[in-house]
Amino acid sequence: MKKYLLPILIVSFWSCGDETETTDYSSEPIVGLWNWNTQTMESLNNPNTNYILPYDSITFDFKSDGSLIIVDSRQIKESEWDFNDYNGEGIWEPYIGSDSVSIDNGAYSEGRREYAYQIDMNNTLLIHRTVNADDESERIFKDHFTRN
Q1: Pick the CATH number of 22-137 from 2.40.128, 1.10.3470, 1.10.10, 1.10.1060
Q2: pTM confidence score
Q3: Average pLDDT over residues 10-22
């Protein structure tokens, strides 16, 4: 019995090695450093609440390993609507076969959410999402970025 037990134990420990899967999104066009320029909000039910917030000094760094670093180096907030400090780290991943990404960062996404994005010929990134507000109105948020 002992002569069978030793080979079984060796084989079982040998096959339990650390298998770390690495993520490589380097071929995704969103990878890189982006400056956040503006955010627009369009209310489909109440156009009187539409707004445009100018941003500067906020960068999003979409890393090829799926990590996301947001640096908010603003000295003052742009308006009374702007109450977030966006500094932080998070994760992102593309939805294969679509122009959408999943972003999970506390200040920007408030949990893991899906965002559609577009990058035009001028290297301008547009990330947009539709949100249903408490008053049941549908709002479209569009965040405009330029590549750094």
Answers
A1: 2.40.128
A2: 0.76
A3: 57
